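[step 3/7] fold_predict: job queued, chain A
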Amino acid sequence: MNMQQWARFAILGAMLVTAYLLILAWQKDYGHDSNKKVETPAAVVAHDVSADLPNAQSTAANSDIPQANIAAQPNTAAPAAVTQQLISVETDLYHLWINPKGGDIVRIELLTHDKNKDSELPFVMLESDPQRTYVAQSGLIGLNGPDGSRAGRPNFEVEKTNFSLADVKVQKDKDGKDIKVLTVPMVYKTADGVEIIKSYKFTPGTYPINVSYQVVNRSTQPWQGQMFGQIKRDNSEDPGKSDQGIFTLGTFLGGAWGTPDEHYNKLKFDNFNEEKLNVETQKGWVAVVQHYFVSAWIPGDFGNKPVKLESRKSADGMNIIGFTSPTINVPSGKAITVDATFYSGPKVQSELKDLADGLNQTVDYGWLWPIAKLLFMGLQFFHNIVGNWGWSIILLTILVKLILWPLSSKSYRSMAKMRVIAPEMQRMKEEFGEDRMRFSQEMMALYKREQVNPLSGCLPLLLQMPIFLALYWVLMESVELRHAPWMLWIQDLSAMDPWFILPLLMGVTMFVQQMLNPQPADPMQAKVFKIMPIMFTVFMLFFPAGLVLYWIVNNSITILQQGFINKSVERDRLKKETTSAN
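[step 4/7] structure written:
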């Protein structure tokens, strides 16, 4: 087999490797079609969710509460009227509902993210209804913790059940600066004089929510307990999946956690018991990750004492991941406040990276994350200039081509020379016939004389392959590109082209690019390479429009570059032949 044939197979191999890696990513990210869901009712009503709190020594009603350091005492709480009227809180980003029983967040609607590109309904992040359970729970357990008592979850009292931006007040932050805060206070009092104030604090324009417990001990005995925060979710499919025609696109759905030593770890729902999380750390986080969105608990500072991160399955098969604080001691006549941060919203890296080490890695770019992060930074830079993600992809493609221009030019020049000497090679093949040894020797001498490297033809594709794959993950994981329009019929760059125009254009540009390359002498190889544009066109029909757009622009620039180099090499060859003739 001669060097030109080896080059052909190298190029074909590189293309097949690209296709194989994309298929792996495709199989990883594409799930089954999700079932049709009931539309959100106009009025949100409470749906009773079992406590599943972290105390194994509780009654059957609270069988899944986390293990406290000290078992809870019998109930000493004052009688309270049970209410199922939810507390409604609406900010510029959220509309959420809190159940006074336990003070859990039972529903969150993201007002700046739509349910899907054809709906005006907001994206529902958390919810508790017969179709789906996904809630954020928190409370106090332990010796005197009300959530661990035999009476079940405490019923908090509130002054009103509707809060909005009109309730925002200016407060001082830890640095003494004025900030606007919307506070939702809830009060629970025990018969022996302990007052517990659970507060949710929202800052307009941001997603993190501060959840605090102030324990005011007016009793004659010291108070002991532990704070916990957990996310409870069923096994329903990811509502963040994108409709891809006959496919449904989604990425990892499951648990995640991180510590200062191990920044990012994924944990499948199926492994919440078998490979359960049980880690003690001073600074860490737990989360439930889905396509484009994440819910996470970030424990506060508990006096430099470690908190426990853990996962488990509830008795009814629910997935629970959360944290439990060290023991909190409140002497008689004293008050102590403990807190944690809860985040439930889009996976915006700039916001997540400041909350906890590794939380921004829930934007999972796969094993090519260094390249993917650079690509996303480039996309953000251009988006800040042009304000459109489609044009940003085009500008990014041009920038990448300029960076790779010197390397690719050498490769294209070598291919152009092979195109020029193709007639000479055909003459040599006819002259030496079956003498393969002599033909190979003469061909190698020709390559050396013309300074041609037949293997350099696969270099441009090898350089593009990791960039292409990394961009795939950027488009799939970056919520900024979710439902992002470009122009005309392309109204979602993260979804396939509904009219298949871009894949067809990609196939045309790939075919034109091949015509500029030296054609295979072997008839079978020639047929395979002619089929490749058709294969890749079909393959790209259901891939994100933004990815296909990148390939079209890349091919178009390559056509211009290669066409210019081909003409330049042909002129040099003609000039050389004219000089030799004279």
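[step 5/7] annotate
The CA atoms of residues 187 and 197 lie 5 Å apart.
Residues 372-581 form one domain.
exit 0
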